[in-house]
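hiii so um. not sure if this is the right channel but i have a protein structure encoded as tokens and i wanna go backwards to a sequence. like what aa goes where. can anyone help
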């Protein structure tokens, strides 16, 4: 018998789960005739702001632009220092550089693999580069909140902006409060595989500050305050109304989707207990939404190969820390040796996780990982 392979992620399954409603939303936008911004974008911005519990949400082209524009709205640019991590999607660092700022990459905590407050403090005390320290930009990696209390405290003590990278943490809580409500601004991606995913590129910046929101609305459309007259220099990064309409259909399902991800994570935790692997850390006082379920093994590459032969798709998020990638490694962006980051990159493995992954598939993954990790 030929058993179907299990992919690591499956955004198409998310589409098929709501196909009728999504197809109707797309047809409505096409028939409506407004193809740039307009009511669909405004409706989703309002729904997203209400869901998050912040005053303002501004739709942009994708998560990378969300970060660039958040920095620019704070007038952070040329030569300014933005403190973030190397253990993240390259998008985080690319966006900081697009804004003209200098990313300073600090190490992550050994368990959660999110920004280490002690490493941040050391980098703030003696920045490895010249420039004006301007912002702290933690990433809530894999759906797990970074340790926001000490990070926010440090940002305040040094007079810096706090900007959250929430690209992987839609709905994650830190001390019962939604990630994305702690910083001056929060940046979301709706890349198709994210916990809330569009069917193409899309992103959002959320903020409680009306002036920052107004600046973002200008910056995403050439700096226009009045149509076709640029008050400031901006870019073109508008949320597509088709994607806004699709996201408006998917947003009400996010809580259930996150609950299913957590259920799968718990099943993996149980099924893999006792297997020679490190299982994901869960921060006390926080709610992890498992954008990824990441195990660690010294024998990661062999494990991955065995799982691949068993028809189990896996991923590595991310294989090379940004400060060691060819485009970045000559530029001395790292604050120190980033030992935890470098070790993690060699050992991490992301198992299949997405809301439509069924119980039988989860059981098959558990069986295959148990066998692969014990060398069978
Ligand atoms: C996906 C992602 C981004 C970028 O989002 P895009 O929409 O792909 O531009 C930024 N940061 C992190 C941590 C991400 O996972």
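sure thing!! here u go:
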């Amino acid at each position: 018998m030929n058993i179907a392979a299990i992919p690591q992620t499956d955004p198409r399954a998310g589409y098929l789960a709501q196909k009728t409603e999504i197809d109707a939303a797309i047809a409505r936008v096409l028939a409506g005739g407004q193809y740039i911004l307009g009511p669909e974008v405004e409706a989703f911005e309002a729904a997203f702001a209400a869901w998050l519990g912040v005053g303002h949400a501004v739709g942009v082209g994708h998560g990378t632009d969300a970060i660039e524009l958040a920095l620019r709205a704070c007038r952070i640019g040329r030569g300014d220092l933005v403190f973030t991590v190397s253990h993240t999607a390259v998008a985080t660092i690319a966006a900081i550089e697009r804004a003209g700022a200098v990313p300073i990459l600090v190490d992550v905590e050994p368990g959660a693999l999110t920004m280490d407050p002690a490493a941040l403090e050391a980098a703030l005390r003696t920045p490895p580069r010249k420039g004006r320290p301007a912002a702290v930009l933690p990433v809530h990696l894999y759906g797990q909140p970074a340790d926001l209390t000490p990070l926010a405290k440090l940002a305040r003590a040094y007079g810096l902006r706090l900007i959250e990278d929430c690209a992987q943490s839609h709905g994650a809580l830190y001390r019962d409060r939604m990630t994305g409500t702690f910083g001056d601004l929060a940046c979301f991606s709706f890349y198709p595989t994210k916990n809330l995913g569009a069917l193409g590129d899309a992103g959002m910046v959320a903020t409680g500050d009306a002036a920052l929101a107004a600046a973002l609305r200008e910056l995403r459309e050439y700096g226009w305050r009045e149509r076709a007259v640029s008050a400031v220099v901006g870019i073109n990064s508008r949320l597509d109304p088709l994607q806004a309409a699709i996201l408006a259909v998917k947003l009400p399902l996010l809580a259930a989707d996150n609950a299913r991800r957590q259920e799968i994570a718990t099943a993996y935790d149980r099924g893999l207990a006792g297997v020679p692997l490190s299982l994901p850390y869960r921060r006390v006082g926080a709610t992890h939404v498992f954008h990824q379920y990441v195990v660690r093994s010294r024998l990661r590459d062999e494990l991955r190969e065995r799982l691949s032969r068993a028809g189990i798709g896996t991923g590595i998020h991310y294989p090379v820390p940004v400060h060691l990638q060819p485009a970045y490694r000559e530029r001395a962006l790292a604050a120190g040796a980033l030992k935890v980051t470098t070790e993690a990159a060699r050992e991490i493995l992301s198992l299949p996780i997405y809301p439509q992954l069924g119980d039988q598939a989860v059981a098959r993954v558990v069986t295959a990982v148990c066998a692969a990790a014990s060398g069978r």
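oh and The chain has a mean pLDDT of 97.
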